[in-house]
Amino acid sequence: MSGKVTICFLLLFHHLSSTSLSYDVLSLSKNETLASPGNVFELGFFKPGTISNWYLGIWLKQDPDRTALWVANRNRPLIGSQGTLQKKPHTLRSR
């Protein structure tokens, strides 16, 4: 499963890097997500259970529970429901 998640992330990152955005900073709130090109995976912020921390993760788009397959900031959760996803050449950062 880990290999599939890595491939998904790479495809999503490639999709982000190939889009013609006129900006390098994309703000996502708790209800906004980015879908993979085939609409199989989704990237966004999620809050597990009653914990007040927020995480940036990837889950299956059809999963109503948004069970994370990959988490970017597992060791550095965000406080609050809005974060910034910053795309720079060869990097992707959440704040």
TrEMBL record:
PROSITE patterns: BULB_LECTIN (PS50927). Keywords: Disulfide bond, Glycoprotein, Signal. It comes from the Eukaryota. Residues 19-95 form the Bulb-type lectin domain. Residues 1-22 form the signal peptide. This is Bulb-type lectin domain-containing protein. It comes from Eruca vesicaria subsp. sativa (Garden rocket).
